[in-house]
Prior knowledge:
This protein is α/β, with parallel strands linked by helices. The chain has helices spanning 13-24, 31-40, 44-55, 61-72, 90-99, 112-120, 160-174, 176-182, 196-206; strands at residues 2-6, 28-30, 81-84, 104-109, 122-125, 131-133, 152-153, 187-191.
Amino acid sequence: MNFIFLGPPGAGKGTLAKEAAKFYNIPHISTGDIFRENIKNQTELGKKAKAIIDAGGLVSDEITIDLVKDRLSKDDTKNGYILDGFPRTIPQAEALEKFAKIDAAVNFDIEDEAVVDRLGGRVCCKDCGQMFHVKTMPPKVAGKCDKCGGELYTRDDDKPESIQNRLVVYRNSTAPLIDFYRNKNLLVDIDAKPAPEKVLEIFKQKFAK
Ligand code: AP5
């Protein structure tokens, strides 16, 4: 299956995508992760993207589309993939149709207050990218990743003003994709409010192997 994960920032797309990708044995392709990796390695792409991402804006369609097209040409995507955070605009969705066949667009349904709480407490591993939440999903040892022992940090775009901007950008540019995929009979809504294990269970029920 070729999945798209749609939904507001902090809805839990990345958290579910990591588990679902393991379960279906398909790659989890997160454009946000690819940009953050480039920022960490100070590549040309990373330098261009950093200020935009920190402020909660969107990297240009042109750059993002080329990056995803290139990633989907790799052999590991032949048996399916999860696209997490792409497409994020109508032009990205239209471009994607030219080089990929999507089976389902999974829409993470959750209200703004919940995402503000989730993003306000999120910490991520510098080494493996695993996400935690200081209150609801705390690491066993404060500041250390349970999986690899890496140092945990707060993303620059999880500052309150960036979170608000990301929600505005989501509403204006990304939410129209819900109708775009509904009109193509590809939209599958998922309740993103329950705990991660429950969301995974709901997902598995909807997409039995
Ligand atoms: P990206 O990394 O895609 O950010 P996002 O869409 O804002 O999504 P997040 O990673 O913030 O949230 P998530 O839904 O994955 O939630 P998570 O699982 O982490 O993109 C970052 C930036 O890159 C963009 O703003 C943009 O600038 C740029 N970019 C990326 N793609 C682009 C594109 N296509 N075009 C242009 N620009 C692009 O969970 C959040 C927190 O909640 C965590 O603490 C987690 O532990 C907790 N949590 C998760 N699930 C649950 C649950 N079920 N119950 C309780 N807590 C939970």
